[in-house]
Amino acid sequence: MLPIKFEDPSSDPSQQEAKQREAEIRNTILAQVLDQAARARLSNLALVKPDKAKAVENYLIQMARFGQLAGKVSEQGLIEILEKVSQQTEKKTTVKFNRRKVLDSDEEDDY
Question: Residues of 23-40 as b/e, b for ≥16 C-beta within 10 angstroms?
Answer without folding.
Answer: eeeeeeebeebbeeebbe
